[in-house]
Amino acid sequence: MIYEDRYNELKKIINYHNDRYYNQDNPEVSDYEYDMLMQELKNIEREHPEVITPDSPTQHVGGNAKRESGVLVRHRVPMLSLRDVFNKEDVEQFVDDVKAQFPDVEFVVETKIDGLSMALRYEDGKLITAITRGDGIVYGEDVTVNAKVINDVVKSLKDKIPYLEIRGEVYMTKQAFENVNEHQELLGKKVFANPRNCAAGTLRQLDSKVTKERNLSLFIFNVQDVRGMEFKTHTEGYEFLKKQGIKVIENYTVCKTTGEIWDAIERIGENRGDLDYDIDGAVIKINNLAYRTELGSTSKVPKWAIAYKYPPEEKETKLLDIQLTVGRTGRITPVAIFEPIRLCGTSVSRATLHNQDFIDELDVGVGDTIVVYKSGEIIPKIKKVIHEKRPEGTVKFQFPDKCPVCGSPVAREEGAADIKCTNINCPSMLVKRIINFVSRDCMDIKGFGAAYVEQLVDKGYIDDIPDIYHLNEYRDKLVEEGIIGKEKNTDKLLDAIENSKKNEPQRLLASLGISNVGKSTAKELMKYFKSIDNLINADIDEIKKVSDIGDISASAIFEYFKNEDNLKIISELAKCGVNMVMNENKEEDNLLEGSKFVITGTLPSMGRTEAKELIEKHGGKVSGSVSKKTTYVLAGDAPGSKVTKAQELGVKVISEAELLQMLK
User: Fold this and answer.
1) Domains of the chain from N-terminus onward
2) Which residues are annotated as a binding site?
């Protein structure tokens, strides 16, 4: 039957998107699109219950617990999801059903934060474990170390009760999210799609320093279990938590009637644009805890609460202009400027058009009438163009062939959507170029963080790379202004800059930002050419003789050294005393040559980057996945599935101590 085919198709589609959302933190569709798919599936199951199978997304929570992220912990209280509703009638039906059983019932209406669920367990007032939802029923992931560096997580309760388990939502404020993405772009890394993805990925990753830097936040929305005291209502639990210094959901409302509940839902909807974090709905839950216990839960959702999902708000407006901005990586982004409209309580007048492919898909031009929407997200989006209203003479927008900042040619890399400025000396890329130059894999100037780079560029101390080596001339002024800190910090950084002049020339080569020339390629080039000058004077055929250098890389290197601006930079660096020649007397250590490593788990005394550098320093190579070509798997604590894969393939698994012994 037709409905059976559609049912099976929907199961497959939704399970795929569940994996993208819950397990990969990288959804491909909007919340609204997902909700509509799930609603269609539920409608088929309601009309044809005989088709329901155990693998239906309606029969289980969407996520899985990941062993690679950390140790798995068994849930003591299930972390279930909520049943979604999309209209006033469904809210009224829920309230009427509950009131029929409990006429004196009270409800609490509160915001539904768009983040990642986490439970916190306290014993005798001390935080002992933090767990993600995982599969929601059996296991979650232990994220205690990362949770403890979140400012909103209370480590010690004022009242030392025997046991307390609470559940909350880890999220990012809009400002924190913007800061992280700006930092990612500065480092040339992939930016996050939205705050929820970033929060989820940050909580699950293995380095608590990264978690702390990204400034996650937490709201608590439920007491899961308590021993040593008793609460009669949900709001009593909130009052106790607030006395402990724990941050609970803001501006919750206690309601008795359907009218009060709907007013609270509408109030949240009207004010969501003023919040400094994203929400994806409003939660309506029973306040009386005894009533909750009596109602119970299904295998997936509690019967005592629902989540109302707001419809995406969208409005028509006129596209006034398309402005091109050049990011610090050279990526050119088209931004739509349109007549201001109000969405989700805020005035918006601009939205990204992403790239030329997106523009082609919409067929959008200046003067068009466009539909802009916001679905509880931080950034407004353009949904479509109303071509019937297109003014005569309007044409689809096309990217220019020159950079809007420096006038250099632009290019689109094969297989990529982004168009970038080809001039690595473009002023828009200066900060990123300096950060790359001083980074660990390049000139490794310790203590020269991104914040210092930005300030020194903004204040005019650095206009190009060689200016780094003239900062010592402004030592007293730098101390006076406190850009780097007081005397001790300033002198420490200036000493690090001076010491970097002695680096082997492969570090300098890697730091220049030549396309496809990273740390390992630079090392091979210097092994062959022995000096930067020899490489400058080489032709393409000579460059291609170097191991792993193909036509594209050879052309990029050759063209870089034919550019007068680039040669001027290298000449200035040489005048500053930066080393350009390989040290022929340095003994080569190739103890690990021919060995391929995979690193997994948490090592006792070094991070993964440090371990990778150590292996490469001794001639070995490091990859991210285990295969038959892998020589060793270097494993620490909580190593995950890579060790299992190694054992299946007969690859030797070694410890950090064994690696260090090999290097003796």
Assistant:
1) 2-59 (1.10.287.610), 72-308 (3.30.470.30), 312-423 (2.40.50.140), 427-575 (1.10.150.20), 596-662 (3.40.50.10190)
2) 31-35, 81-82, 110, 133, 169, 285, 309, 403, 406, 421, 426
